[in-house]
Amino acid sequence: MARWIGTSQERRAEQFLRNAGLRFEARNISYRGCEIDLIMREHNTWVCVEVKYRRSDSHGVAAETINAAKIRRMGHALERYLKEHKINPTMAPMRLDAVVIDDNRIEWIKNIGV
């Protein structure tokens, strides 16, 4: 996928979450082995968001691309981000979410790490 398409879909997901009441914290945080697309806050909960986009379902829907290994890496990356910002991850409420976009349909999936 072209980089500009990914960026535009991440912005679309961010606006969707802002409209739902979340506050933006950071985007495109990279660590070895993982990138966090969006970090948002819902009240006092830190939310790590994976954004997946599919123009068509000819190769499956966007949600099917998120696997257990990806979820594990997201959790580790969020913990590292919090530590770097002097926030104790064992004391901070955290959640792993996904925003999946299939063409024009957007869906917010909460707690993908459960």
UniProtKB/TrEMBL annotation:
Pfam families: UPF0102. It comes from the Bacteria. InterPro entries: Restrct_endonuc-II-like, tRNA_endonuc-like_dom_sf, UPF0102_YraN-like. HAMAP family: UPF0102. Belongs to the UPF0102 family. PANTHER family: UPF0102 PROTEIN YRAN. This is UPF0102 protein OIK42_17565. It comes from Alteromonas gilva.
